[in-house]
Amino acid sequence: MGTINERRRMRGSVTAELAVVLPAVTALLAILLLAVSAGLLQLRLEEGARAGARALARGDSSEQVMEIVQRVSGTAVTVSVGAAAEYATVTVEGRVGGALSGLVPWKQAAQASAKMERNQGQGWPGIATPPPAVAHEAGKAEVAHVNKG
Question: Which residues cross the membrane (predicted)?
Answer without folding.
Answer: 20-41
